[in-house]
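Tip: read the tokens left to right.
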């Protein structure tokens, strides 16, 4: 791929909007090494493949020799972002954010050459920022501008409390841009307001305003926004077989969106799959290719091919997987009602889902169909209990 094609993919693939595109194109064509800012909010230890969308874009910048500047929000995370929340978020302890950050870096190292990434913890400057400086930063915004933010506006109209601390969040994000002298900042569409905040703050401190690039959210395995809340996500550290199966569960109308947002293929390469889909080829065949691409991105090509074999063997031939491919769950008690066991083993997130699965005959214990919601499962110290849900989900259960 030549530089022109790389720039086209950089500016268009996965991208929802750019502010300001003309400025960014000039910077990219100037041969200047750009400082590309991205932050990690270490509230959670697990990243899913939508979180990888901006990281894949960082990889594209890195391949063009630009400098990736990664900021760990060990300070900002203690305030908590409510960009997509309906209420205040609890503050985290610093030690917890640092542990999560370490896990995050390990996961994104599968995509980025982390040895070439400039990493900062924003406590480096936040802990020494004076109250007077906070005032200098804050005067670049009005209360009306902050309340105009969609999330705040809804809560204000509904009479739901908004703390002053939450107003500081976009200001902190903008201050980060000043401290690292960012040329461009990237993030999800839900961060649009916070990303914009860096521009007036940089201008106030005599820096060139950063350009911003945002990305669409993607749907999870159930068609809703991919979210840990909905339990419909595909984790970046998911085992190859589990990742492959989950990708095969997505709706057919998401195939091209996943190719576009979750793989490193170029737009021209993705067009080939789109043409195949439009030619009435069985979507399952194209989804298999999609799963192969995504799994090998986080594991290896061999892992990806083996995961495909696993999928076809287990799901097509209705064969129970090898013992090594079934996750073992260790639980403390000797006896569990079937509904509770299904939830404790993470096969279902709600009692309602588990109850339906049992009543519809989807659940097997040691190859025997269980359709009594009052059934009690006895666990043994020396022998595993095999739970199967449908033809895709398996867990071995042991007593602690």
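Filled-in amino acids:
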């Amino acid at each position: 791929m030549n530089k022109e094609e790389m720039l086209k993919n950089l500016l268009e693939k996965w991208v929802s909007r750019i502010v300001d595109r003309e400025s960014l194109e000039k910077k990219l064509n100037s041969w200047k090494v750009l400082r590309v800012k991205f932050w990690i909010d270490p509230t959670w230890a697990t990243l899913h493949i939508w979180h990888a969308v901006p990281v894949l874009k960082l990889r594209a910048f890195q391949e063009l020799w630009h400098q990736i500047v990664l900021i760990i929000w060990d300070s900002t995370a203690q305030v908590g972002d409510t960009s997509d929340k309906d209420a205040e978020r609890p503050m985290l302890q610093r030690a917890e954010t640092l542990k999560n950050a370490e896990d995050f870096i390990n996961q994104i190292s599968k995509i980025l050459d982390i040895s070439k990434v400039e990493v900062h913890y924003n406590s480096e400057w936040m802990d020494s920022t004076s109250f007077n400086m906070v005032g200098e930063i804050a005067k670049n915004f009005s209360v009306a501008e902050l309340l105009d933010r969609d999330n705040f506006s809804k809560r204000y109209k509904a009479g739901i409390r908004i703390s002053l601390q939450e107003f500081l969040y976009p200001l902190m994000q903008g201050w980060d841009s000043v401290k690292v002298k960012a040329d461009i900042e990237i993030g999800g569409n839900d961060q649009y307001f916070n990303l914009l905040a860096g521009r007036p703050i940089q201008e106030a401190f005599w820096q060139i305003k950063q350009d911003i690039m945002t990305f669409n959210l993607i749907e999870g395995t159930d068609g809703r926004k991919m979210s840990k809340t909905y339990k419909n996500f595909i984790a970046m550290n998911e085992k190859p077989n589990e990742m492959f199966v989950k990708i095969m569960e997505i709706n057919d109308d998401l195939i091209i969106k996943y190719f576009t947002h979750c793989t490193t293929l170029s737009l021209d390469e993705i067009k080939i799959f789109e043409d195949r889909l439009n030619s009435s080829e069985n979507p399952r065949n194209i989804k298999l290719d999609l799963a192969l691409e995504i799994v090998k991105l986080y594991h290896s090509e061999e892992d990806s091919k083996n995961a495909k074999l696993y999928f076809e063997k287990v799901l097509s031939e209705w064969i129970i997987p090898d013992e090594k491919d079934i996750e073992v769950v260790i639980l403390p008690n000797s006896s569990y009602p079937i509904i509770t066991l299904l939830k404790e083993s993470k096969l279902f997130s709600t009692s309602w889902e588990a109850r339906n699965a049992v009543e519809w005959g989807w659940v097997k214990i040691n190859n025997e169909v269980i359709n009594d919601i009052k059934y009690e499962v006895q666990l043994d110290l020396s022998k595993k209990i095999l739970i199967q849900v449908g033809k895709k989900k398996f867990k071995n259960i042991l007593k602690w």
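Residues 387 and 395 are 5 Å apart (CA to CA). Confidence is low (pLDDT under 50) at residues 81-89.
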